[in-house]
Amino acid sequence: MRRRQFIKKLSLAAVPFTLGGIPLRLMAENSLTRMAQQSTNDRVLIILQMHGGNDGLNSIIPVEAYDLYYQWRANIAIPAKNSLRKMIPLDSTLPPNAQVGLHPDMIAMKDLYDRGRMTLVQGVSYKNNNGSHFRGRDISFMGGGFDDYFSSGWVGRYLQEEFEPKVYPADFPNSEMKDPLAIEMGSDVSLIFHQEGNIPTSISLNDPENFARLVGELEGFVDQGVDPRGKPPTALDNSPYGKELNWILGLEDKSQDYAERLYDVYKAASPSSVTYPERYPFNAPKGSMRNGLTPQLQLIARLLDGGGPGLGVKTKVFLVKMGGFDTHAEQVESYDPTMGQQAALMYHISSAMKAFQDDLKARGTGRQSTHGYYL
After folding, report:
1. pTM of the model as a whole
2. What is the largest CA-CA distance in the chain?
3. DSSP code of residue 233
4. Where are the domains of the chain?
5. Which DSSP string corresponds to 265-308?
6. Cα–Cα distance between 126 and 128 in angstroms, integer?
7. For residue 371, what is the enclosing H or E element?
8. What is the pLDDT of residues 161-211, one digit of tens each?
9. Which residues contact 337 (CB under 8 A, 6 or more apart)?
């Protein structure tokens, strides 16, 4: 899957979201996108799902409108000056109305930006936002409008179109695509990966070793001479019961194939030589929150590596998750608006992303697989 193919077919996913006021489906018509279409580099999309409602204004701070920003949120505003911890100017070469500052715990993102490894797209929205985190997540995942209720997601529809005429899951895995089309960290299968017909195109994964062990211990994979899975006589194969059971057992067999493949790739790659952040380095919030993004990105880097060039998984879309963004009164400490639960979360995201990029570079996969994040 090439970046130019992804952008070319993006309109097929029918996404009415806007980026900076421009409908996403129209992005395929602008000059920047036409330039991107000419690239021959493979791309991997990593989607970070931030559970809750992150305070975007304290993450990406408007420089030109700082006085207004401070006026409306003086008790939680990030200082612009006269403080050891203050907002980080991102790029002073931009026009004044485009300049922003980063939260002081997002210094790693500043480093990524300066190296040309990150950009910001603001104004991502949909009409008639009702304030519900759950409904907002569904709308962004299904790629619909505020009054749509799709049973499929925009990534699932894209993958369905990309691999036609093959049909998932019936025609997968195969010799050309041995790996899952998409991988979601955790135990859920989110709406974003559902194709038409409400069938997900992804698998959920926490630990390849435990996943392989779990699947391998299922009774259906033990050769006992007699199928212990409740398989009906051959004469009933074409009955409604037989067809449904055959479909379920087929998924079970595919799970074994994927489990073995992912574990083999995982074992073939070495653990990271790069130090990933484990904990927030400051005392507030209490307990110095653990970085939940680190193990997810470490796993992805190892799966993409696979022990050498071309040996990693060909999966093109991953979903990682972080919770805790419903901060409310815990967002900042009363004595310092730059400290608190959101500060720790901003540190975790930016530092883990930087470590992930450094990990890919150390493994030699950075140039072959430039990665994008959709937050």
Report:
1. 0.83
2. 81
3. P
4. 43-54+104-374
5. HHHHSPPPSSPPP-B-SSS-STT--B-SSHHHHHHHHHHHHTTS
6. 7
7. strand 370-374
8. 989 899 988 899 999 999 999 999 988 889 999 999 888 899 999 999 998
9. 75, 76, 77, 78, 79
